[in-house]
C-alpha cells in the first residue's frame, strides 16, 4: 500500500435516465473480478495454465501476461476502499487455486475481513479458469481426477473462509473452460480436441457437484454459467435445428445434469460420431444435481445461427478467431453477426437476450433464485463512457422487466470493477468502470462508476 492514494475522483456526473425503475429491497448491487485478471504477484503462487498459455508465442495479444496484472495483490485495500466509496453491496471475486496450493490463502482471509469491515458482502468464486499447471500436466479437465482434486481444494478454501462468506460459486463459465480451452484452443490450455472438450465439460460438471456437496450447509452455493441466447436466423426447419444443436452444446450440456440430473438425449445423439459418453459413470449425473441456492447468469450478447450444410458458413461466434471450432459435431451450423451497435469486443448489443434467459430459467427451475453474476461491456479507455452507461442501463432495464414478470433475480454483479487482463486479448480491451493506468496502476472511476454508485445507493434507475 502506497502512502499516497493511487486513484483520483472524476467529478463527471452522468445524466440520470428519465423515469424510475425501482428494484426490490435487498437486491444485491455488486461488481465482479477474477484472480488471474487482476492480482498479479505471480511469484507468490504456483504456475497456472494461463501462465503457460501467455508464454506461448501468438496466443495472447502483445505477449501480455498476468504477472503483474493490475497489482491487486498489493493494492487490495485501496480497491476495497473504492468499492466502499461507490456504495457497492457485494463483491464477487475468484480465489486462485495455484495461490492456495502455494500457501497463499491468507490473502483471501484478509480480503474477506476487509470487505466485511466496509459492509460489503463477499461472494467467492472457486474457479475462474486458472487451473494449476501441474494438474494440466496430469491431463487437465478431460481427466476425472481433476474433479476430485477440485473438491479437495474447495474444502481447503471453505475451511478458512466459510465462517464469514455466505455466497459461493463453484465454477465460472465452465463452457469457456471446456470448449475454448480444449476444442478451439483460443483459451488456455490451448488444446484442440473435440472429444477432450466434451470430457472436460462432464468433469467440470462433476467438479461442481463434488464441491457443492463438500461446502458447509451454512453456505449458499451456486454456479456461474454463461448461457447463450441462441436464435435461429430464419424460421426454417433447418435453422431451428441449428439453434437446437447449439443450445444443447452451449446451455443444456450444463443445465441438463445441474437442474434435471441427466444429459439431454439430443446432445448425446448429436455428438455420437465423436464419443459414446462412456466417461459418464453411473451416479455421476445424480451427483452433479446438488441442491442449488442460486443460478448465476453471465450475459453479454446473443448468438444468431443458421444451417450451413456444406460447413462453410460464417463463423463469427464472438469467441475469437480460430482454425478449430469450439462447437463439437456442429460443423453444419453457421454463426452470424447481428446488425446494429457493437462493443469493442465486436459483440452485438441486445439486452433482450438477458431477459429471455432469466425468464427461461424461471420456467425451467421454478423457485430457484437467479443472480446476474456478470454483465458489462468493453469500450475505449476514456473516463467519460456514455456508451457503457447506455449498455448497462439497457441490460438493467431487462433485469427489471424480468423481475416484473416473475423472475426471482436476487442481484447484479457488473463486469468489471477494474480494467484488467482480458485473457487472449491481453490488456487491449477495457471492461472496467474504474480506469487503470497500466504504467502507474493509478485507478480513476469513470462516469459509469459514478452512475452505478448512484443506482446502487438509490436502488432505482
Automatic annotation (TrEMBL):
Keywords: Carbohydrate metabolism, Cellulose degradation, Glycosidase, Hydrolase, Polysaccharide degradation
Keyword Mitochondrion: no
Reactions performed catalytically: Hydrolysis of terminal, non-reducing beta-D-glucosyl residues with release of beta-D-glucose
Gene3D superfamilies: Glycosidases (3.20.20.80)
Database matches in InterPro entries: GH, GH_1_N_CS, Glyco_hydro_1, Glyco_hydro_1_beta-glucosidase
Annotated SUPFAM superfamilies: (Trans)glycosidases
Superkingdom field: Bacteria
Pfam families, per database record: Glyco_hydro_1
PANTHER family: GLYCOSYL HYDROLASE, LP05116P
Protein name from the UniProt record: Beta-glucosidase
Source organism of this protein record: Streptomyces amritsarensis
Amino acid at each position: 500500500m502506497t502512502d499516497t492514494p493511487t486513484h483520483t475522483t472524476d467529478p463527471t456526473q452522468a445524466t440520470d435516465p428519465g423515469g424510475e425503475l425501482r428494484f426490490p429491497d435487498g437486491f444485491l448491487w455488486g461488481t465482479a473480478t477474477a484472480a488471474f485478471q487482476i492480482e498479479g504477484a505471480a511469484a507468490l503462487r504456483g504456475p497456472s495454465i494461463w501462465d503457460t498459455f501467455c508464454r506461448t508465442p501468438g496466443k495472447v495479444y502483445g505477449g501480455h501476461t498476468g504477472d503483474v496484472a493490475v497489482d491487486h495483490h498489493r493494492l487490495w485495500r485501496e480497491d476495497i476502499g473504492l468499492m466502499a466509496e461507490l456504495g457497492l453491496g457485494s463483491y464477487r471475486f475468484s480465489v486462485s487455486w495455484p495461490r492456495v496450493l502455494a500457501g497463499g490463502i491468507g490473502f483471501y482471509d484478509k480480503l474477506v475481513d476487509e470487505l466485511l469491515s466496509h459492509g460489503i458482502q463477499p461472494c467467492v468464486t472457486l474457479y475462474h479458469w486458472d487451473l494449476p499447471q501441474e494438474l494440466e500436466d496430469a491431463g487437465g479437465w478431460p481427466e476425472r481426477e481433476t474433479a476430485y482434486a477440485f473438491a479437495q481444494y474447495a474444502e481447503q478454501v471453505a475451511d478458512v473462509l466459510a465462517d464469514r462468506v455466505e455466497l459461493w460459486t463453484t465454477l465460472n463459465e465452465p463452457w469457456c473452460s471446456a470448449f475454448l480451452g480444449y476444442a478451439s484452443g483460443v483459451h488456455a490450455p490451448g488444446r484442440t480436441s473435440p472429444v477432450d472438450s466434451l470430457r472436460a465439460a462432464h468433469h467440470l460438471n462433476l467438479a461442481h457437484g463434488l464441491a457443492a456437496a463438500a461446502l458447509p450447509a451454512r453456505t449458499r452455493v451456486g454456479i456461474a454459467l454463461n448461457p447463450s441466447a441462441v436464435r435461429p436466423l430464419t424460421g426454417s426447419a433447418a435453422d431451428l435445428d441449428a439453434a437446437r444443436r447449439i443450445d444443447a452444446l452451449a446451455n443444456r450440456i450444463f443445465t441438463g445434469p445441474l437442474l434435471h440430473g441427466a444429459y439431454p438425449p439430443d446432445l448425446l445423439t448429436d455428438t455420437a460420431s465423436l464419443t459414446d459418453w462412456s466417461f459418464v459413470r453411473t451416479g455421476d449425473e445424480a451427483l452433479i444435481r446438488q441442491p442449488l441456492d442460486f443460478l448465476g447468469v453471465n450475459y453479454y450478447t446473443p448468438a444468431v445461427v443458421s444451417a450451413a450444410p456444406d460447413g462453410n458458413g460464417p463463423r463469427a461466434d464472438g469467441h475469437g478467431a480460430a482454425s478449430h471450432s469450439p462447437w463439437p459435431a456442429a460443423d453444419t451450423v453457421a454463426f452470424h453477426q447481428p446488425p446494429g451497435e457493437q462493443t469493442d469486443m465486436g459483440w452485438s448489443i441486445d439486452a433482450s437476450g438477458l431477459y429471455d434467459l432469466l425468464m427461461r430459467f424461471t420456467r425451467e427451475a421454478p423457485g430457484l433464485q437467479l443472480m446476474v453474476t456478470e454483465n458489462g461491456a468493453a469500450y475505449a479507455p476514456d473516463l467519460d463512457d456514455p456508451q457503457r452507461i447506455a449498455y448497462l442501463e439497457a441490460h438493467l432495464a431487462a433485469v427489471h422487466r424480468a423481475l416484473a414478470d416473475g423472475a426471482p433475480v436476487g442481484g447484479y454483479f457488473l463486469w468489471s470493477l477494474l480494467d484488467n487482463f482480458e485473457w487472449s486479448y491481453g490488456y487491449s480491451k477495457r471492461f472496467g468502470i474504474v480506469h487503470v493506468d497500466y504504467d502507474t496502476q493509478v485507478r480513476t472511476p469513470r462516469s459509469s462508476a459514478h452512475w452505478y454508485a448512484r443506482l446502487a445507493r438509490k436502488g432505482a434507475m
